[in-house]
Design a protein that fits this description.
This protein has one domain: Roll (Hypothetical protein YwqG fold). It is built from 6 helices and 12 strands. Strands 1, 2, 3, 4, 6, 7, 8 and 9 form an 8-stranded antiparallel β-sheet that branches. A 4-stranded antiparallel β-sheet has the order 5-12-11-10. With 289 residues, the protein is an alpha+beta fold. The chain is elongated, with a radius of gyration of 21 Å. Helix content is 18%, strand content 22%.
Length: 289
């Protein structure tokens, strides 16, 4: 979201918790505020936590990109079906991150990838089969490092990720709603336009909204390219959930790694209902590059 700050959204939530009022839009700002309230009513709003990679020292317990993972000695190191070891992409220590529902407030979550040296290639991958990627959650953290694997007890990798180990520094959770790249956005705009008499009730798509009256919504609720956890997912290319109904319950961004230079991202999405249960068996991995 590139114009309205978190403070603006919070104020809007407070002011417009009741049903959206009558059917007129008085200004561009009025349209934006009413659309935020409308999206929240439709349960299309939540929080995200921006994570800034930094070249600072990391420990086995740090929230970080890459590096040596936290791993108990009695835990089998993750590998794919070809017995090729996976590599730590990110590690999130929820004890050290600001609390944000529905994410846990304790434990360490890790995402691993098979590093074939093609992470920065253009070929898109969309899968939920945890073979060449893996999500692992340790609910209870061991405090004694002597109980953990050392770097020497883990696989050595010849090639390198496009990045070296980086500490992830978290900002405060920020309220947000779906952005224009979300597959639900067009239909939400259409419902909003009908509710506020911006188009006929018979309108079938946003193309039926006259005079580009919905243009401020698409210009405002665009995306920013940053690494984060939480939110609803941001896509440079087409949202894969639009064409794959089996993934439409994946409404929560578990983790997004952004590549600002190439305007791309690695997305990991999961059902928010599963997050509440700490069930990470269904995760959609999308290389949106």
């Amino acid at each position: 979201m590139n114009i309205y700050s978190a403070r603006s959204i919070i104020n809007t939530i407070k002011q417009l918790k009741a049903k959206h009022d009558a059917a007129t839009i008085t200004s561009r700002d009025d349209m934006i505020k009413k659309f935020i309230a409308f999206a929240i009513e439709k349960r299309l709003g939540n929080y995200h936590l921006q994570l800034t990679p930094a070249d600072e020292p990391c420990t086995l317990y740090s929230s970080k990109l890459g590096g040596t993972p936290y791993m108990p000695k009695d835990f089998d190191y993750p590998a794919n079906s070809g017995n090729k070891p996976l590599r730590l992409l990110c590690q999130l220590n929820f004890e050290k991150l600001p609390p944000m529902k529905p994410f846990p407030e304790k434990g360490i979550l890790q995402i691993y990838l098979y590093d074939d040296g093609k992470l920065d290639m253009a070929d898109r991958q969309i899968t939920s089969e945890q073979d060449n990627f893996r999500v692992i959650y340790f609910e209870d953290i061991l405090r004694r490092e002597s109980l953990l694997k050392s770097a020497e007890e883990m696989p050595a990798f010849d090639n390198t990720f496009p990045f070296t180990e980086k500490l992830l520094i978290a900002k405060s959770p920020t309220p947000t709603i779906i952005c224009s790249s979300d597959y639900r956005f067009d239909n939400t705009v259409l419902e909003f336009a009908k509710a506020y008499k911006m188009c006929p009730k018979s309108a079938k798509s946003t193309y039926d909204i006259p005079n580009d009256a919905d243009e401020p919504l698409y210009n405002t609720f665009t995306y920013e390219n940053f690494t984060c956890t939480g939110g609803s997912g941001i896509f440079t290319e087409r949202d894969p959930r639009k064409d794959c109904p089996q993934y439409r319950d994946c409404d929560l961004c578990l983790f997004t790694l952004a590549d600002a230079e190439k305007d791309g991202r690695l997305n990991f999405l999961m059902p928010s209902a599963n997050m509440i249960k700490r069930d990470f068996s269904k995760v959609l991995f999308d290389t949106n590059l």
